[in-house]
Design goal:
Length: about 425
């Protein structure tokens, strides 16, 4: 199955990088169409498309859009874009914001029409200065041309859009922590449904709030312009995954970068698009960002990219941060480095994550230094079981899954390291050498 470009066609074509070029290529035509539609009709098109959240969870997008109250009260309705992109291995949103910012703006404005949104905020990872500048310029141009602000294109609809730079905290990629940070509070998660109202009812400043990922919003113009039924034909070979997905391919490949593929493409085909394995034979793959379970080369050969299909090889689509590892990779070192990240990024609010991530890191660090003890593998499994599903937000799960997956698939490497005080491989890639 060939690479299918929708979003990346815009990103790769310099003609789309100016407003005049974007308009000449059909930009904002979807917004013009949406302005003539009833808000429920917009949501119904998104439902028909089968679009699911591209940030990692894969939640049906239309359910969020449809969850915003139909009757407008005196509270403002907010549309938030999660552009924090802190997941190691993922860099797709950065390219979208830098190279095709108009697509994101158009998608968010369409979402605003569908949810009676008054204001939108793009919460950008603090290090993404170039992305913020690109969006700032594109937003200013959109206001000047009447695509944002009061009375959009004479329709009587209003929508304002703002940028907010975070401080580089991975935790703020969690939607409730993102809202807390945006409101000037510490970037820590809130209670969630059923213990608290959904963000669609009481989110930012206790008002109805829609939150989606950059790539999710960027899909909306294609859906509205071409129809949800057309979009649903992409990925139709899968159980319940539709459209295209951008994968950020890195690690030991000859041609790393972002690749937009149709759901139903095999993971092996994605590897071929990235130029194949570099520096040796394929050993392992982290298909969807550092938080998803690692798989071996045999699983790569039979993996089909889809939200349900990836479960067949005991992994996930995730955020699309796909890291291929060659035969010289020490899995113990790789997982130690992953655990170090999650221990550093834990916000410390809940005990399972605060203590558990550091405990896992201590055990892995002991093994890596050649001081591993009998029972360390079982202890790691026990600690993971006490974190997974028990932390206040998903960061705990994200920390436990890589360790659980590595032990399940490459248990012999952990056993060898403990028994011999050194790695089973003779060399380690630069990918994981630095502490």
């Amino acid at each position: 199955m060939a690479e299918r470009k929708l979003i990346l066609e815009h990103a790769h074509d310099p003609a789309y990088r100016t407003l005049d070029g974007y308009l000449a290529k059909g930009g904002y035509e979807a917004l013009k169409k949406a302005l003539k539609m009833e808000r429920q009709a917009i949501i119904d098109e998104v439902k028909t498309s089968g679009l699911r959240g591209r940030g990692g969870a894969g939640f049906p997008t239309w359910i969020k859009w449809n969850g915003i109250p139909k009757e407008k009260s005196d509270k403002l309705h907010y549309v938030l874009c999660n552009a924090d992109e802190g997941e190691p291995g993922t860099f797709k949103d950065k390219q979208i914001m830098e190279q095709t910012p108009y697509l994101l703006i158009e998608g968010m404005t369409i979402a605003g029409l569908a949810t009676q949104g008054d204001r939108g905020y793009i919460y950008i990872r603090g290090e993404f200065i170039d992305a913020a500048r690109s969006l700032r310029n594109a937003i200013d141009q959109a206001y000047a041309k009447g695509y944002l602000g009061k009375n959009i294109l004479g329709s009587g609809r209003d929508f304002d859009l703002f940028i907010h730079l975070g401080a580089g905290s991975y935790e703020c990629g969690e939607e409730s922590a993102l809202m807390s940070s945006l409101m000037g509070e510490r970037g820590m998660p809130r209670l969630k449904f059923p213990h608290a109202p959904l963000p669609t009812i009481s989110g930012l400043w206790d008002s109805p709030t829609l939150i989606n990922n950059v790539e999710t919003y960027a899909c909306a113009p294609f859906i509205i312009k071409n129809g949800g039924e057309w979009y649903s034909t992409l990925g139709a070979s899968t159980k319940n995954s539709r459209g295209t997905k951008i994968f950020s391919v890195s690690g030991h490949v000859n041609n790393p970068g972002n690749f937009e593929i149709e759901f139903g493409t095999s993971l092996k085909e994605l590897l071929e698009m990235a130029g194949g394995v570099k520096g040796g034979k394929l050993k392992a793959c982290v298909p969807g960002g550092s938080s998803v379970p690692i798989i071996n080369a045999e699983a790569v050969d039979r993996a089909i990219i889809g939200y349900e299909e990836m479960a067949d090889v005991k992994s996930m689509v995730g955020s699309g941060g796909c890291m291929f590892l060659n035969e010289h990779t020490c899995i113990v070192t790789f997982i130690w480095r992953t655990a170090l990240f999650y221990a550093n990024e834990s916000c410390g609010k809940c005990t399972p994550c605060r203590e558990g991530t550091r405990w896992m890191l201590q055990i892995l660090d002991r093994i890596r230094q050649g001081k591993g003890q009998q029972g360390d593998i079982e202890l790691l499994e026990e600690v993971c079981s006490q974190i997974d599903g028990r932390s206040f937000c998903g960061l705990g799960d994200a920390a436990a899954w890589p360790v659980q997956g590595a032990i399940r698939v490459f248990r012999e490497e952990f056993e060898y390291f403990i028994a011999n005080g050194r790695s089973i491989v003779t060399s380690e890639p630069s990918l994981v050498m630095a502490p």
